[in-house]
Design brief:
mainly alpha; 2 helices
Length: 160
């Protein structure tokens, strides 16, 4: 709903039409009028529209200073947000590193077990190779004995 309010600025009456509360609009007029009175009290030769322009510049100055005062808070807020994001990323990387370390320890343990099994298997292979050589020597000996007996039998058969 539009509100119509009369406000006095520098002895002139202005009619303001806006959606805002009439009391709020009057407070804006009082604020601007107060700034004009300050400009008039500080300057001896300020006349015409100069007090209005100087008051507007003072109000803009206040506004920009307020805006700039909030800027560090916004920067700090952004930095805090970025800091949280980086902290979460660090935690995630630390978790991944821990998991990698755990997996590396598991693989190292598996490697030790596999090496032990390999060593035991190599020992068994050496033992079995020794057994094969022993059996081969026994076979050679038996073949040699068989050849000698066979010759003795053949000699006996021929002599008969």
């Amino acid at each position: 709903m539009l509100n119509r309010v009369n406000i006095t600025i520098n002895s002139r009456v202005y009619t303001i039409v806006a959606n805002e509360d009439p009391e709020y609009l009057k407070s804006l007029g009082d604020y601007v009028n107060g700034k004009i009175k300050i400009v008039l009290s500080e300057g001896n030769h300020v006349m015409g529209e100069k007090p209005l322009v100087l008051a507007a510049l003072n109000i803009c100055d206040e506004y920009f200073k307020l805006m700039n005062r909030n800027e560090p808070e916004e920067k700090a807020s952004k930095l805090l947000t970025e800091n949280k994001r980086l902290e979460n990323e660090i935690k995630e990387l630390e978790r991944a590193e821990q998991e990698s370390g755990n997996r590396a320890a598991e693989i190292t343990e598996e490697l030790k077990i596999t090496q032990k099994v390999l060593e035991e298997t190599e020992e068994k292979i050496k033992f079995l190779e020794g057994q094969i050589k022993l059996k081969e020597n026994q076979i050679k000996k038996q073949k040699s004995e068989f050849a000698i007996r066979e010759k003795e039998l053949l000699d006996m058969l021929e002599n008969k």
